[in-house]
Each structure stands twice: as C-alpha cells, then as structure tokens.
Design goal:
By secondary structure, this protein is an alpha/beta fold. It is 28% helix and 27% strand. The structure holds zinc ion (2 copies). One zinc ion binds next to α4.
C-alpha cells in the first residue's frame, strides 16, 4: 500500500510499504492535517515512532471487517495509570498513539475506533479529533453562559474554540491579525478584533511564547487563562509575576481529549452545530501532501483534507 513516511525533519516520501498489522484494518477515506503534522514534518515530534515514521492522526475510513465508517482515534489510554485512575485519560502515562492516517490503510486497536454518525462525511468526521481537543479546552475554561470569553488566534483551533464558546452561551471575542480569519470568526457567531482587551476567560490558540504572554496580558483580574496551543518543544516561557499573584489569574494547560469528548465532537459535527465545511480546505492526494503542509499559512484558516484514493 502507499503511505506518506517521514524519514527525518523535512523529508517526507510517499512510498509503497508493507500492510500494517493491527487488530482492525481500516481503508482510509479522509485524513485531515493540522499544525501538529506541520511540526512532525519540520522538526519531528515526541509522539512519532523512530524514522521512517508514519504520521497523520485525524483519520476516517471503512473497517475492512464490517464496512462501517469509523473515526480512527489517535490514542488509546491504558486505563490503569495514575492519570487514568484520576479520570484524566488525556494525560495517560502509557498512552498508545495511533498514527498513520496519511496512507491508504491503517491498522488500529478496536479501542481507538468511534462510529461515525449517519450522514456525516469522512472529511467532516476527521475533524472530530481536533474538535475534541477544543471541547476539552472549553471544559477546562469552565465557561458559563453569559461569560466574557476571548480566543487569541484565529487558526482552525481558535475558530473551533470560538464556536464552542458561542454554543456555550458566552460573549465571545476572537483576535487575529488576518481579516479573512476575523470574517470566519464572525460567521461562527463571535465578535472579531485585531487585538484583545481584557476578558474573564482567555483561551490561547497560537502556541508561541509571545502569544502565551499576550494571553496573560488580556486577562482581567480573577480571570481563567487556558493555554491550548503547544509551544515548540524545549520552549521556556517568561511570564510577568504581578498579574499571576495580584490579579489571582488561574492559568491552566489544556491537552488532548478523552473518548467521550471525541464522541461529543462527532455529534456536534453531525448536527451542524459546528460547520465543518467552513473549516475544510482543498482535498489532495498523498503526493501533494509535502508541499501543502509547507505552504505558508495566511488568509482563511482551513484544514487540508487528504484522500489517499486520489
Ligand atoms: Zn491534529
Ligand atoms: Zn493511563
């Protein structure tokens, strides 16, 4: 079968490889790409296997045994470690990562699979993976109806966060310097600005040290700040001490999701509450993936959709 393999930073090759082994074989119909995939290609990533490594973690396809359309979840928690026992499976210390969506076929543990609701297309269902992380981040923010909530960054994750906060009944402001992304945020029901004021809830969705500092600067006294964007590995972030102490800021990380959050995301996409078509970009084959991932971002925020059958 054909698969996109990483041979090292910046070195992606589409090759014929052995069919992967695993509990359930799935023929891939759509795999969406995100900033993590760009990171994997440019710099490598701690979740990757040794090179050559398969990647792609937002994957939908048909089970070979039943023909059912499934989302192949990108992780299976062990269920027994300290984090799992505490009900925080997203922090599992012995997580099994399931990567390799950028390929004609993937093999996955049955525990990674989620049934796709009727009527939801493969490309839309694939977005349940990042949307589940947004569901998790919004839960970490403790957003109540009527709350003044802000999102820093209008990439696809920022737009998903804004939409979920709108659905939660918050007054939502999203900041991004691109006019096209501000227009997307407005279509999702948020107010869009170039720069945030001060807000009771701030979700950071950029993933750079300067953006983490900007999120703290946009926090009103007593605010909750949720850091959703992961900084490049090895980053250290200097934060101002005064607001952390005197303004009693509640600064939290948000990482990944659990199984229930993935199912919640699938339901939101199937019902149309989150319009996945507004976040879908071009559909490409495996051969075009390298160039598409390295294309400079700008303009509208849209996810690349890979259909390995093209
Ligand atoms: Zn992703
Ligand atoms: Zn665990």
């Amino acid at each position: 079968m054909r698969a996109a393999l990483l041979h090292g930073p910046g070195d992606l090759r589409v090759e014929e490889i052995e069919e992967p082994d695993g509990e359930v074989g799935v023929r891939v119909e759509a795999a969406t790409a995100c900033a993590t995939d760009v990171k994997c290609l440019r710099h490598g990533h701690l979740i990757l296997d040794p090179y050559p490594a398969r990647f792609g973690h937002e994957t939908v396809g048909r089970r070979e045994d039943t023909g059912e359309l499934v989302l192949v979840g990108d992780s299976v928690a062990c269920g027994r470690c300290r984090a799992c026992a505490a009900g925080r499976a997203q922090l599992c210390e012995r997580m099994t990562w399931v990567l390799g969506g950028f390929a004609e076929r993937i093999a996955a543990p049955a525990g990674a699979l989620h049934a796709v609701p009727d009527g939801l297309e493969p490309a839309g269902a694939a977005m349940a993976e990042p949307l589940a992380a947004a569901v998790h981040a919004v839960a970490r923010a403790g957003a109540a109806p009527g709350a003044d909530a802000a999102v820093l960054g209008g990439g696809t994750m920022g737009l998903m966060l804004a939409r979920l906060l709108v659905l939660a009944g918050c007054e939502v402001t999203l900041a991004d310097r691109h006019a096209e992304r501000r227009a997307q945020a407005q279509a999702f029901g948020a107010t869009a600005v170039e720069r945030l004021g001060r807000h009771d809830i701030v979700l950071e969705a950029v993933g750079r040290p300067d953006a983490w500092r900007a999120a703290i600067a946009a926090a009103a006294p007593g605010a909750t700040v949720v850091l959703v964007g992961g900084c490049p590995s090895g980053s250290e972030v200097t934060l101002p001490a005064a607001p952390l102490h005197y303004a009693e800021l509640d600064v939290r990380g948000a990482f990944h999701h659990d199984r229930a959050e993935v199912d919640e995301a699938l339901a939101l996409l199937a019902s149309g509450a989150v319009d996945w078509r507004a976040l879908a970009g071009e559909t490409i084959g495996l051969a075009a993936l390298h160039d598409a991932l390295l294309r400079p971002s700008g303009g509208e925020a849209r996810k690349i959709v890979v259909d390995p059958r093209l």
